[in-house]
Amino acid sequence: MVSCEKILLQFVPFESCVEPTFWHKYTKLKLDVDMLEEKVRPIWGLYSPQYHRILNVDYTSFNKEFNGTANSWKAHGHHLNMNTLDSFKKHNKVKMVEDYGRKLSEAISSGEAIESPSLLVNFIVLTFADLKKYHFYYWFAFLASSKPLCYLSEPTCELADHLTNEQITLLFQRHGELSVDQQGFFGILIKDGEVSVYVLKDFLSVLDSGITDQDIYWCFVDPCEDPQHPGWPLRNFLLLIYTQCPQLKDETLKVICLRKKQNSILLKVRFEESDVKAQEKWIGWETNLRSKFGPRFVDLSSNMNPIKLAEESVDLNLRLMKWRLVPDLDLTSVKATSCLLLGAGTLGCSVARALLAWGVEKITFVDSGNVSYSNPVRQSLFTFDDCQRETNKAEAAALALKKIFPSVRSTGVKMTISMPGRGVNDAADVPQLEQLISEHDVVFLLTDTRESRWLPTLLATKHDKIAITAALGFDTYLVLRHGKPDSSIRLGCYFCNDVTAPGNSAQDRTLDQQCTVTRPGVSHIAAA
User: Which stretches make up the THIF-type NAD/FAD binding fold domain (predicted)?
Assistant: First the structure.
């Protein structure tokens, strides 16, 4: 037999596994909750003997309560995200791990870790999230103390070589009867072949009952599969024993590394004589994929659904407005607003693009005309191909919006709006127009002539809808809101000051008076 005298006890460290859902969840928290604040957020991790030395975090890590799967045990984490990559690199990581290590040491000394043994598995995640590129930098630290120094007094052996199959079966059975929070670290007593399992708090009191040390076993759930070395959780467990049981400092401890039933091992551990002058240090920073101490990096842009990626990116700038400029901005209400655009010309195209930028997802166009060759250079939703195909403006605009942002619900309706002073081309257009207005939250009046806004104005007032009129001059513009009032004061509409009913404003007009002659860019200003 090979002697193990004074062989230093070594531990297999955790390896982090970050699910993509962790980043998706944190992206929302950063944009909507944390914003500019660099705050430490408590999170959960989980580990299991089924996954060799893996500590996993996912979207449930941010829950208030731990929601682990079967045969998984919780770890207590602390997540800090930095606002810039430079601050992420310069953050004092030695001090960070010492600060949290000191808190864990206090929990062990005060007995808090005895009441809640899962505190012994403690970790830190320092991150930087580039939310424009979906690049994430992260660095895990799995907290562990440099004390106490331990060594093996005998070679590591399989648990099956020390206990009978019946005893091992009873051990697993009674371990499963403990509460989840107590299952990670516990004690067992075997006397006269009978296996008794104790939560850690009760087990410490057993030490004072006169039972010989041959009957006492310290036990922990081990996520490591190495046949010779225990996993990382044992480090802080030994620190707790060393701190809370000073009478055992000169004794040999029998430690069971509970793994899958056939892989569990038994260690016989002794504490090295303590150097009183030696300062306790806290360690645990994870190595990167090159096996060097440094952060890890993940690029999620290529793994995300392109449409979902577009949705998140559209919302990015809007959410950033809430960080400093408009904290009370209600983006949910803006996004849910359905908009009806009467007119898909110069104003209609500009307003539609502005609404899209504000995150509005339902836009309906109404227009009777086709795209002409003079339109594409002034009307941003049309192309030369639309002119050649003589596509209806409303339908072409709706299709163009979907090409810009696939998630938008855009519809084009070819319809002539009935106007005073002109004949009614299709009587069915009037009830269809009324139905469209009743189905939308906001109506934009963006047509070429004044009289074409008259009937929609009446219908918007009838159905208590917000109506916004926009009109362009050469280098001037008018934007007027009426319809649904915000207070007891009822706002006047576009026609309230008229002495006579509107007539045919295009009759006996020259070409420059019939077309929209306006300085390029005014429509974008008005639309904004």
Answer: 319-520
> Cβ(93)–Cβ(15) under 8 Å?
no
The helix/strand/coil state of 305 is: coil
- Of 339, 389, 388, 391, which Cα lies nearest the Cα of 367? 391
3-state secondary structure 152-170: ECCCCEEHHHCCCHHHHHH
The residue annotated as part of the active site, out of 150, 339, 349, 515, is 515
Q: Percentage of residues in the chain with pLDDT exceeding 90?
A: 52
User: What pLDDT sits at residue 4?
Assistant: 46
Cβ pair 407, 307 in contact under 8 A: yes
Chain centroid to Cα 213, Å, comes to 50
Dist CA 315 CA 357 (whole Å) = 9
SS3 content of the chain, % helix, strand, coil (to 5): 35, 25, 40
Per the annotation, the verdict on 245 as an active-site residue is no
161-272 in CATH: which number?
Answer: 3.40.140.100
Q: What is the pLDDT at residue 132?
A: 87
What CA–CA distance (Å, rounded) separates 293 from 274? 28
* Domain ranges (residues) in the chain: 161-272, 337-527
pLDDT value, residue 523: 79
Look up tokens 């002495």; give the residue: 499
Rounded distance, CA 56 to CA 171, Å? 26
Nearest-10 Cα torsion for 66, 68, 71, 77: -60
pLDDT of 314 reads 79
| Least confident range of 193-197, 232-236, 521-525 | 521-525
CA distance linking residue 219 with residue 257, whole number of Å: 6
Summarised one tens digit per residue, pLDDT across range 461-508 is 889 899 999 888 888 888 888 877 666 666 767 777 665 667 666 565
76 contacts 42 by C-beta, under 8 angstroms: yes
Element at 15 (helix H, strand E): strand 15-18
Pairwise CA distance, residues 129 & 106, whole Å: 32
